[in-house]
Amino acid sequence: MYIPRAYELNEPQAIADLIAANSFGLLVTATGEMPVATHLPFMFDADRGRSGTLVSHMARANPQWQEFASYEDGGLALAIFSGPHAYVSPTWYGDGGPTVPTWNYVSVHAYGRPRIIDDASEVRDLLERLVDANEAGLEPAWRLDSQEDGYLERMMRGIVAFELPIERLEAKAKLSQNRPDEARLGAARVLEGSGSGEARAVGRLMREVESRR
């Protein structure tokens, strides 16, 4: 990912929070004639491995998992997590000199070699964690153990669980850091007043830039 120094995000907790808030990621592999991509829910174990470990699962009928063995001999797969993004008009900066439209966004790219998880207890633990994380705050909350074991076993046979120990982690927060504070905050105020929740989120992130410098 192209990351100018002004937009580099390297705080581990901020990156972990970004992944957690945007955990429905995109797994990209490229071992054949063309890249293959699947949208998947991920969990991020920040304390496991040098840069953390991602865990997820996909349908066994999805042939992408059959590419995982190819990475044992080298190469890296890519998991992409996209955060909020929004168009920024030059008029929102105020009288700050010549400028052009842009698009502000935050994103994380995680590279690693995917490994299949075969142990049934590990697979069930992964699914329980994923369900609990996404059911948090719901009432009533659905739980994996509310289902009969026979049914769960059949469903688990239909998926392939895997982990992606991260070997390279890139994070970018393009939030008008190249603009003077007054201009950046002016644009942030416009976005914060938008009817789009995503635009409002970008505005809040632009306002928080100074505290992360």
Low-confidence stretches: none
CATH fold group: Pnp Oxidase, Chain A
Beta-strand portion reads 25-35%
Instruction: Please provide the count of β strands.
Output: 8
Average pLDDT for all residues: 93
Helix and strand element order: HEEEEEEEHHEHH
| Corresponding CATH architecture | Roll
Number of domains: 1
| Gross morphology | globular
Give the count of helical stretches: 5
Task: Give a written overview of the molecule.
β1 (24-29) and β2 (36-41) form a beta hairpin. It contains five helices and eight strands. It is of the alpha+beta class and 213 residues long. It starts with 11 loop residues before the first helix and ends with a helix. α4 runs antiparallel to α5. 29% of the residues lie in helices and 30% in strands. Strands 1, 2, 3, 4, 5, 6, 7 and 8 form an eight-stranded antiparallel sheet that branches. The chain has one domain: Pnp Oxidase, Chain A (Roll).
Descriptive terms for the model:
5 helices, 29% helix, 8-stranded antiparallel beta sheet
What's the gist of this structure?
By secondary structure, this protein is of the alpha+beta class. It contains five helices and eight strands. The chain has a single domain, classed as Electron Transport, Fmn-binding Protein, Chain A (Pnp Oxidase, Chain A), CATH 2.30.110.
